[in-house]
Amino acid sequence: MLARVLERVDHGDTLVVVRIDRLARSLSHLLEVIETLEGKGAFFRSLQDPIDTGSPQGKFTLQVLGAAAEFERALIRERTKAGLASARAKGRVGGNPGLSAKDPAALRKVRLARQDGYMERLNETAQDWVPHVRRLRPDMAWEDVLRIINGPLPHDRHWTQSRLLRAVKAYIRDGFLPAEVLGRTGRRETDDRLPAIVAAIKGADPDITLQAICERLESMRKRTPRGRTSWQPSSVRMLLDRAEKLGLLE
Q1: pLDDT tens column, 229-244
Q2: CATH fit for domain 2-67, picks 2.170.270.10, 3.40.50.1390, 3.20.20.100, 3.90.800.10
């Protein structure tokens, strides 16, 4: 939830909370959130705490909190080092004994835990890529599917082809996608590639406007049939008509 809120915050906005303990897990986490907001030109305000980054007093309070957080981190580091040194002096070695001994049961437990964590992270982003993969593969090449997936996403959420393929294989393994999506793509004539891409964009959002499709194609760095970088709605309309004749539009 917090990540989605921070994504939507824009320049000049103020994130308001009742108390700081309703926002951050710790003092250092609070400072990370405020730093993210400042990077976007936004402000932070707590109604029941003397923190308002839009005022000089609030900024001063934030600086005091920052110094306290750094002091807290230094104390934790020193205590951790002292604890490890004491344990070593008593002959105790940290870590999982089963992993150290390469016990198969312990190794399997760690592997399964990692797989579960990976699947949980995938499920959080499934709406970004699963519908496109299910609808476009194997008729469309991975390169074009990837461009369509990344088109509406912010840059920091863009997929790479290797990461996407790993996610697809994981979903196939667990039965969430059919194995056919990994099938080989048939050769498509060069003239049919742009209509197929435009049809895929239209299919993902039937209400999308021609101008919005133009912007999507420009973000994908696709050139017009005449080799231009700037798209016009008339060119998109022409490609949609061709896609319909080719049977690419549902």
Answers
A1: 888 999 889 888 888 8
A2: 3.40.50.1390
